[in-house]
Amino acid sequence: MLASTVAVVSLLTGGVLALVNLTGHTFGAWQSPEPLSPGLIGAAMLGVTPGLFAVGRARAWEEVRTLVLPLVIVLVGLFAVSIRNGGELHAVRGGSLFLVLFSLGWVAVLGLLALCALLCLVRQYLKPARRPGRRAVPLPGWSKPFLAVLGSGWFGIGAGLLAAPRFWGDFVPWAVGRADAQALGVWALALGVGVLGSLAEDDLGRTRPALLALPGVALALAVELAARATHVHWISGPGLSLVTMVGGLLVAGVTGRWLLARRTTPISTAPAPQRKPEPEPEPEPDERTGV
Q1: Cα dihedral: 201, 156, 221, 205 (round 10)
Q2: Which residues of 194-213 are buried (b: 16+ CB within 10 A; e: fewer)?
Q3: d(Cα 198, Cα 193) in Å, to the nearest integer?
């Protein structure tokens, strides 16, 4: 229920943020120097929606925690960033009535969802663990170094933007404010936790919802970046790194789904070819009668 609720909220709110900022108008809960940052936040919300809807079809907690744990990070992190940078909120600074109401709703909904997510997480970990009832589908060995580098990269960038937004925000290849840098850091940290979590699980069957979310987020980010391409310093080191890391999310998601479908394809149930019956051996003659 929590995942479905967040999916609906993400679909509506993320859609508004992504579409409005695509037009070049800066729209968000706080004041931003550039429309790209709130647009990317909305794009990430849109991209993760298919994975959130897939959570309801899972049969066990182990199949969804690689997506639910990053979800909790995003909800709690964005709420904390909004409160920490409360002076930048439109509800505090003033502005149009729509921006003020959106800002108030953003904080209220995030706070409620973050509280529910924490309660669900605590309740889940208080339950006794169950043994898996199926065979694991381990990750191929060649994919583990790639996932380790990709997850560590996203995790490190997110931690840096959250801890020192003024310093690390200067490395973002477009103009960002403090709240923008920390909000982007929350999403980067969540992506890093999700990728590293799938590496720790070492079971493709336990990453089904996450494998839907990864390519969705990558494609949504790519569309937003392409629409605002003239405002990004692509030839800089951070710009090239961003392309590589977004592409890595897409490759990881698509490859993971292909490997999972390939390894879980049911064996054909076609009837086996019938063998011709072997001729019965002739009976040996009786020694007494000769017959």
Answers
A1: 0
A2: bbbbbbebebbbbbbbbbbb
A3: 9
Residue 103 class from Cβ within 10 Å (0-12 exposed, 13-18 middle, 19+ buried)?
buried
**Radius of gyration (Cα) for the chain, nearest Å?**
26
Exposed / middle / buried, residue 20 (Cβ in 10 Å: 0-12, 13-18, 19+): middle
pLDDT at 182 (0 to 100): 97
User: Which backbone phi and psi does 89 adopt, to 5 degrees?
Assistant: -65, 145
- Per-residue pLDDT band for 270 (boundaries 50, 70, 90) equals very low
Q: What is the DSSP letter of 288?
A: T
CB 24 within 8 A of CB 18: no
Whether pTM > 0.85 for this model: the answer is yes
Name the pLDDT band for 130 (thresholds 50, 70, 90): low
The pLDDT of residue 268: 38
Q: How many residues does the chain have?
A: 291
CA distances from 100 to 42, 86, 93, 94 (A): 18, 12, 9, 7
Question: What are the residues facing 29 on neighbouring strands?
Answer: none
pLDDT at residue 132 greater than cutoff 70? no
